[in-house]
Amino acid sequence: MISLFQSKYFAHELTRRFPSDSREKLAGALVDAQVDLNPHQVDAALFAFRSPLSKGALLADEVGLGKTIEAGLVLAQKWAERKRHILIITPSNLRKQWHQEMQEKFFLPCMILETKSYNHAIKSGNLQPFDTRDKIVICSYQFAKNKASDLQRIHWDLVVIDEAHRLRNVYKTSNIIANTLKNALKHAPKILLTATPLQNSLLELFGLVSIVDEQAFGDLKSFREQFLYLNEDQVFHTLKARLKPICHRTLRRQVKSVSYTRRLPMVEQFTPDESEDRLYSLVSEYLRRDNLQALPNSQRSLMTLVLRKLLASSTFAIAGALDTLAARLEKKLAKQSPAADLGDEFEQDYETLNETAEEWQDENEEEPLSDYDLRALETEIKDLRSFRDLAVSIQYNAKGKALLTALEKAFANPTRPRKAIIFTESKKTQDYLMRLLADSPYNEGIVLFNGSNTDEKSRAIYAAWVERHRGTDKVTGSRTADMRSALVDYFREEGQIMIATEAGSEGINLQFCSLVVNYDLPWNPQRVEQRIGRCHRYGQLHDVVVVNFVNLKNEADQRVFQLLSEKFQLFEGVFGASDEVLGAIESGVDFERRIAEIYQKCRTPEEIRSNFDQLQSELNAQINDTITQTRRQLLENFDAEVIEKLKVHQQESQASLNRYERMLMEVTHHALQGYATFRDENRDSFNLIKSPFENLDKDIPLGLYELPRRSGEAHLYRLGHPLAQRILAKVKSETISNVEVVFNVSKAQPKVSALEPYVGKTGDLALTLLTIEALDQIEDYLIFTARTDDGDILEPDLAKRLTTLPISTMQPHSNTNAAVLDSLIQQEQAKIQGDISARNALFFSAEAEKLDSWAEDLKITMEREIKEMDRAIKEAKRAAAVASSLEEKLAGQKQVKALESQRSEKRKKLFDAHDEIDRNRDKLIADIEGKLEQVASIQTILSVKWILE
């Protein structure tokens, strides 16, 4: 067991603040993370703020390499540094996934801010809902744009923007969301995440980089002048060098540690019977009517989309929706207000309605009812009731029968796990599938997964799960999160089939299942990719079979499937949807809208084919092979170089992780003597039997604790855990002075041969904490100094080794003489500060060079305009010289004089603009120079007399 002496050293080592370019900086986050990190993820996280002058980074790893984890590491580090004004902006359908990943994998408290929660906060008296330091704020693009003024008022420590290619057209003034967010977050450090930073034009890359750092390039004109045509090697290499400090990209083929199985497509065709086909036609024609009373004008296109999706899902789903519409119109006819907003009622069945609505803009306004409308109302109610009666009369759906056939085929392979996840977009269809499968050979081990899970079986699974994991960190106390975990665990351990709504496509890991069934196929490719990604992910051992259903009587359904399958390549291959294709659609909701418009306006197969051909043609134009090749050349490094670097980083990261975990458990073992029992020699876990503190923190329950990434059946112990924080603070506050320590070199494991010449000698030893503040960052250095009583000085590394030896005795001593070490401490301090100055000088030089380039960029366009005027004057002189008449010659001379006057004015403005640019550059550089000055403080951690035996 280590002594207080070593425990104190370890406690300070565990809480040190490291420079921005040190791999040790992320060690604490590595210890805390409940995820097996790959070296490329650590590398990307370190890249993001390698320079203390960095304003952020564009992390552009290929799909499937874990950009969310990379950002999570940076977020965890910022949180540990108590920089807690943090914002995550993400597509609305990824908000829950981010929330869950940050909480489960990094233990970071988060809150999703949306219209309802925002308005609730305002009503509760919180006039700035974004301004919180106890939780990371997560919101959608649309919500962030709508609340831009709120964002602008806050001094953000970090903003993470996911799927950042949505902002790539920020250089166009017409892109309102991108420009609004850029201006609102202008001064915030940012991490942009996208697999497709360059889609159609180099100007998109300019746009994304300008969001991170406006001084990385000049203005749009100068960028276009210099870099738009990369036909010269020098121009190409200049652009690549300027991108290097801000853009980071790793390829899947470079990451040898990550392997994926394949996706295998399976298509089951079906033909609806006559009654199903008639219902489809009747409702489709109803939705095309010019005047619909059941759907609010302000939401018509969105509600039409929902009804079409429910119609395609099952007769049971559309029956419920038709019933809702008829009931609302009957209330309208009776001049009563409907009980709730139509969207609220539809969302009870179609759970993704709110998320889709955030990005869906209907522009029509409500109109008051006229007498004619009242007459039309009665007719519409009658029609809806007749449609609903037809739907209710249909008890069996052809697609349901096709599902049973597909399961029989898929389960016929004995080498594959007998588990399937079936996705539907409707809770009523979910109930129908439960009844269908209950009367089939697959009636054992069925579990439902949706946004509420109030059914009896789910409640029973949840209660049993809570009881089984009582007293462990698996139980979070959030019923929603714990219900999700309980259902997934049941599916893994006992279940055969999970029937899930879209709630199951986010934030859960189903790598133990290898059969994905799209009972209802979303029109949004990003949602399809999310679904398949629950199973087809890192850690999957089997090829994943993806089942889809095709309606042979519906031309539009067939073309949607063809588009998703052939163009987006979602259902087969090793990685599924390519970066180029998914990046091309920008917003999946916009893509859904385009498809919805085709369903709405096209009646004949010829019209459907023509419109889908047009949509596919537009996609072909967006997916540009030339640009793909340019991106590869600009943003990718040589494979051999990257692979070798990642190998080294894997070893370094693992070594840091192991060292930090060992130190944490050693300090804990020392501090909890009499309060806890440790279960094994590795001390990976312990049982806390009573509190070591007078006031037991509610966040420090008794029971079993273990380090992350172990069994999970315990409280997860980590650097950020309240118990560890209390222990480290207590140990650091202990005083060690006027003490004699007897070290035993013979018992050291491993052997320390370099210290053997000092056996029998005595001396003084000190551990000093040096803190340096410069360039807006704080760094801690532990200085070890030791000398013998006869004047021999131990090298710092040897002094450090001395402190790690086993201790025979430690007793009071009155003759300690720390002053004899002062000069050694001062020498080490001077060396450290010199190294920091040299390193910061490099950071300063890089930043100054960037600002020089920025200033030159801005001048280029102006100088080009002067050259263009010179050419225009030369042309005008030539024209005047060859003019045949005196009048023409005089007119030519007047034109030359006018152009020369304009040139003189431009030159004057050019010189003034040059001066202004130089002044701005000098001011920025002066600001940085001011931050270079070091502020140092020093504190003695321990000072003892030592004897080596």
TrEMBL record:
PANTHER family: DNA ANNEALING HELICASE AND ENDONUCLEASE ZRANB3 FAMILY MEMBER, SWI_SNF-RELATED MATRIX-ASSOCIATED ACTIN-DEPENDENT REGULATOR OF CHROMATIN SUBFAMILY A-LIKE PROTEIN 1. SUPFAM superfamilies: P-loop containing nucleoside triphosphate hydrolases. Pfam families: Helicase_C (PF00271), SNF2-rel_dom (PF00176). Residues 399-582 form the Helicase C-terminal domain. The keyword Protein biosynthesis does not apply. The keyword Nucleotide-binding applies. Residues 48-215 form the Helicase ATP-binding domain. This is SNF2-related protein. It comes from Ohtaekwangia kribbensis.
